[in-house]
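Can't paste images in this forum, so I'm doing it all in text. The chain is below; anyone willing to post the predicted structure tokens underneath?
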Amino acid sequence: MAMTLSDFNSLTHEVFGSSRADHLVRTHVLTELGGRTAEQAIDDGFEPKEVWLTLSAEFEVPEIYR
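Text version of the structure:
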């Protein structure tokens, strides 16, 4: 199932909290996505779902949110 950017933003805020989510999306480098931040990966054309799955795996987010 596809994930919209709005879904991605909602999940990051729900799971990580609003201020932490924004910081992680802008600054945390995801090596699996070529050394990009989540924000850069999405801007570069990666699907929000792929970015979310990568981010959630790195932070061991419970399966219920994946």
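The radius of gyration is 11 Å. The helical segments are 5-16, 18-27, 38-43, 48-58.
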